Structures are given as C-alpha cells and as structure tokens.
Amino acid sequence: MMKTLYLVLILLMGTVGANDVYYLHGSEKRRLVPLERAQGQDAAADYYRTEKGVVVGVRDRLILSLRPGIPVGTYVDRYGMTLLKAFGRGLYLLQVASRSQTIAVANALCKETGVVYAQPDFIKKAVRR
Q1: What one-character DSSP code corresponds to residue 97?
Q2: 83-121 per-residue burial string, b: 16 or more CB within 10 A, e: under 16
C-alpha cells in the first residue's frame, strides 16, 4: 500500500511543472533542458542539456548514497526499485520502474532523511583530452 502511494506521488510530481525539469544536487536545483534524441544516441535513454551545456542521457538507473546504518531495502521497497549493485560504504546503483520517472524518484529520495544524495546515473560522452 505504501509503495503504491509513493509511486502515485512520484507520478504526480512528474506532471506538476512538467516543463521545469531539474535534478537536486544537495539542496540546489540543477536545470535540465529536454532534447530530441539524435542519431546514434542510446534509444533506451532520454537526453538533456545541463546548465553548463553538457549533453547527458538518463536511463532507468540512479546512484544512491545513504547515511551509515540506513538499509537500502527501505528505499528499494518504498520506491519500487531494483538493487543492481552495492559499491560499499552506503553507495548503490538502483534501477527504477520506468526511465520517465528516474529524475522524479532521485529528487524524492534526496528529500529522505537517510539519504546523503541521489541522482540519475547520467550517460556522458567520453571526451579525449
């Protein structure tokens, strides 16, 4: 029941201010401008331009960092996610139910007391230097 309620709230959050796309970096909102998918880009991702002009892709994955002693299962169950990898020291790679909700779920997790940070697992093009 609680899991359903959280998912409904996330869906509602995604529709409020749908033109205002951002992810939370700490308490700071970082704007993302939606882009059309270009030829050769991953079809399993939605693409955005950051405030710094960097093009990033967002799939159905996010990175979650938890405070010591907080079990990841609490958030996996609450938000209907799947644990893909535990990196240790409270850092996890999770899969959300739908890529269209990745940013909303990450933003909702940022507001949870046991969370240090949560953000989409951004896809960035490698740049040679």
Answers
A1: S
A2: eeeeeeebebebbbeebebbbbbbbbbbebeebeebbbb
Q: pTM for the complete prediction?
A: 0.79
Question: What is the CA 32 to chain-centroid distance, rounded?
Answer: 12
Given this model, what pLDDT does residue 1 score? Answer: 57
> Which residues are within 8 A (CB) of 63 and not within 5 positions of it... i.e. 6 or more apart?
91, 92, 93, 94, 117, 118, 119, 120, 121
Q: How far apart are the first and last CA of the chain?
A: 51
What is the radius of gyration, based on Cα positions, of the chain?
A: 15
